[in-house]
Amino acid sequence: MNTYRATYLIGVCLLLIGMFTSCKHDEHEYHSITDKIKAESENYKGTTLSSEAHIGDLKTIEITEGDETFFIPERESHIKSFKCTECHTKPVSEMSSDDFKKAHWNIKLDHANSKTMNCVTCHNGNDMDHLKSLTGEQIRFNKSHQMCAQCHSRQFEDWKGGAHGKRIAGWAPPRVSNTCVNCHDPHAPHFESRWPARYNPIKEKQRE
Ligand code: HEC
Ligand code: HEC
Ligand code: HEC
Ligand code: HEC
Asked: Which of 116, 147, 205, 207 has the highest local Cβ count within 10 Å?
């Protein structure tokens, strides 16, 4: 009886020691979910998924703003009247619209008030193929977000981080994000607030 009990106790002890000392396990067995995350993230090489197939033929350019590097759609080939210097060979003040009946009749500025902004706040009268910063630096049309960022730094920071705007294709890399002018017309950027479309049961009843 005693020997039986002793053997039994020794057995239990060995089992317990075994349980607590042997941390060797198969690749896929862990003591806890935290251990599993720690162990499996050690050699993590990033996702193997890619959005590439969904981006298709869209022409993009790579930009680096602060800590973020990502892609935005290319713009210059989408701007109908580009290159501007096909007509803008001299300063606007010396140009007359007689030759080109109201060249930009379709553009009406509805952005900030006229004390803050006019055409040449953003466009460079002496170099129409580029935008310009408030301090007169050249900005390419492809990087117009840098021009918007000067005055809308909060939305710009959010956009950089992915909280304002929208990604193209999917969440898997490479990251391609719509740029400001893909959504906002720079000449009239405001969106009207809208009520959500709502199902009206009373109207539906009357229709029946
Ligand atoms: C087909 C010729 C043509 C092209 C192309 C063209 N412009 Fe013009 N633009 C004009 C003429 C003419 C005027 C001056 C008279 C007027 O306002 O119609 C003008 C005036 C302007 C003005 C001054 C408007 C004002 O009210 O002071 C801006 C800014 C301007 N253009 C920007 C651009 C930009 C940016 C591009 C290229 C994306 C461009 N233009 C391409 C013909 C052209
Ligand atoms: C807030 C900055 C800003 C102001 C102010 C502004 N523009 Fe622009 N404009 C832009 C940007 C940015 C683009 C390029 C948009 C894009 O990528 O599609 C542009 C594009 C244009 C184009 C090319 C449009 C096309 O599709 O061919 C013309 C022409 C133009 N602007 C003329 C003007 C004129 C004239 C004024 C003044 C009445 C004016 N802009 C005021 C920022 C501005
Ligand atoms: C020189 C400064 C300046 C630049 C550059 C500028 N904006 Fe603005 N923007 C303003 C001001 C001022 C207002 C009007 C005040 C407000 O509503 O914040 C405004 C208004 C707006 C609004 C409407 C805000 C609302 O409440 O609905 C949007 C959207 C906007 N801008 C987007 C842009 C985009 C996109 C660009 C670049 C193409 C740009 N802005 C460039 C100064 C600027
Ligand atoms: C995918 C489309 C999209 C892109 C890209 C985008 N915006 Fe917007 N933005 C919106 C919409 C939609 C609203 C209106 C939100 C609302 O009314 O609640 C908005 C609102 C704004 C406003 C008004 C104030 C606010 O926060 O509601 C400003 C200013 C603005 N955007 C600037 C920018 C600038 C600058 C960029 C680029 C750095 C940018 N946006 C990129 C869609 C976009």
From this structure: 147
